[in-house]
């Protein structure tokens, strides 16, 4: 039986970079197709992938978790420490071919554990309204809608979760 394992990994590892590219491509294409009827133009895709290195997920400011389904790097979740007992969940992604295998739950549980272990009392995140699968994952794991805590061109809804025993 194949199981998910989730461990911290450098944000710039080969697996992390491949997962970031896949995640960014999927969410960018979803937006572009909705807005223009076409996928993300290649040059725009390359600019977007390069613009966010993930360095904010390097310790001590954060961490990146990579999930493997057997030997396949198939998902990621980032935790960025905001201070005052808060952390932001980001880059939650499971490769489309591995969805439905428990990866989302494994990544969410590992991210919450890591945040709690670092003294986080509240985990927050922002997302887009059209990412309904992600929103469903967050609410299944106890996240509730909260007021906006940041701004950005793709921030449309915000969620938070109080972590017990932090």
UniProtKB/TrEMBL annotation:
<dbReference type="Pfam" id="PF00583">
    <property type="entry name" value="Acetyltransf_1"/>
</dbReference>
<dbReference type="GO" id="GO:0016747">
    <property type="term" value="F:acyltransferase activity, transferring groups other than amino-acyl groups"/>
</dbReference>
<dbReference type="InterPro" id="IPR016181">
    <property type="entry name" value="Acyl_CoA_acyltransferase"/>
</dbReference>
<dbReference type="InterPro" id="IPR050832">
    <property type="entry name" value="Bact_Acetyltransf"/>
</dbReference>
<keyword id="KW-0012">Acyltransferase</keyword>
<protein>
    <submittedName>
        <fullName>GNAT family N-acetyltransferase</fullName>
    </submittedName>
</protein>
<keyword id="KW-0808">Transferase</keyword>
<dbReference type="InterPro" id="IPR000182">
    <property type="entry name" value="GNAT_dom"/>
</dbReference>
<feature type="domain" description="N-acetyltransferase">
    <location>
        <begin position="1"/>
        <end position="164"/>
    </location>
</feature>
């Amino acid at each position: 039986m194949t199981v998910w394992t989730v461990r911290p990994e450098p944000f710039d590892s080969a697996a992390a970079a491949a997962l970031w590219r896949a995640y960014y491509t999927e969410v960018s294409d979803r937006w572009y197709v909705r807005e223009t009827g076409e996928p993300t133009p290649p040059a725009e895709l390359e600019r977007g992938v390069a613009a966010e290195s993930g360095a904010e997920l390097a310790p001590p400011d954060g961490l990146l978790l990579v999930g493997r389904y057997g030997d396949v790097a198939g998902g990621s979740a980032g935790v960025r420490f905001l201070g005052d007992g808060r952390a932001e969940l980001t880059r939650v992604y499971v490769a489309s071919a591995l969805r439905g295998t428990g990866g989302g739950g494994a990544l969410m549980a590992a991210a919450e554990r890591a945040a709690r272990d670092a003294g986080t009392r509240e985990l927050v995140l922002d997302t887009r309204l059209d990412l309904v699968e992600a929103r469903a994952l967050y609410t299944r794991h106890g996240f509730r809608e909260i007021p906006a805590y940041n701004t950005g061109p793709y921030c449309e809804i915000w969620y938070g979760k109080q972590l017990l025993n932090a």
